[in-house]
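Exercise 7b. Backbone tokens:
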């Protein structure tokens, strides 16, 4: 297993639209294991393959405190959504920046699991936020895209400062 480097906004590679996964095989499962390790190490509640510079439609998630809600989403689709919620979001690709984003409250997702089997689940609250946030990454979107120009400018400056401090 390995910890993978995470792309930082405004890296242009975060704008890549990911391609569907064609084969769920051992090589993909090795990437999934590395992504979980990377996500837990940060720590984060979700990670899209885009963020580790792999431009395929793959997400790992776990919104629990005790690693009890691991989910692998391959070629995910939102098949139903309802309601509205506002959540203060953060992103491993946009460290130190947190901002409210409006999302659906409940989503039903269809995806393949790590064995290539189709499954469906419905979730609400933070888990639904996470699904929508991660699926945005697969389409080359980052949560700061939803901010007002002023707030986005502030986020850019904060990140530039952080990058400079890190050297
Ligand atoms: O770890 C994460 N926490 C989080 C909190 C609120 C809304 C969304 C997220 S996702 C984020 C991990 C990440 O950047 N995934 O792409
Ligand atoms: Ni993110």
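Sequence design result:
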């Amino acid at each position: 297993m390995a910890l993978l480097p995470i792309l930082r906004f405004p890296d242009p590679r975060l704008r890549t639209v990911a391609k569907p996964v064609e084969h769920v095989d051992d090589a993909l499962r090795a990437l999934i294991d590395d992504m979980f390790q990377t996500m837990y190490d940060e720590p984060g509640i979700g990670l899209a393959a885009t963020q580790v510079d792999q431009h395929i439609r793959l997400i790992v998630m776990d919104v629990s405190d005790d690693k009890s809600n691991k989910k692998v989403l391959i070629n995910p689709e939102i098949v139903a959504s309802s309601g509205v919620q506002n959540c203060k979001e953060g992103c491993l690709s946009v460290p130190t920046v947190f901002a409210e984003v409006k999302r659906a409250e409940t989503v039903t997702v269809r995806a393949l699991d790590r064995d290539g089997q189709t499954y469906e689940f419905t979730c609400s609250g933070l888990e639904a936020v996470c699904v929508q946030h991660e699926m945005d990454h697969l389409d080359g979107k980052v949560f700061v895209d939803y901010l007002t120009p002023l707030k986005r400018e502030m986020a850019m400056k904060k990140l530039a400062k952080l990058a400079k401090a890190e050297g």
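Instructor comment: The two ends are 27 Å apart (CA to CA). The chain has a mean pLDDT of 97.
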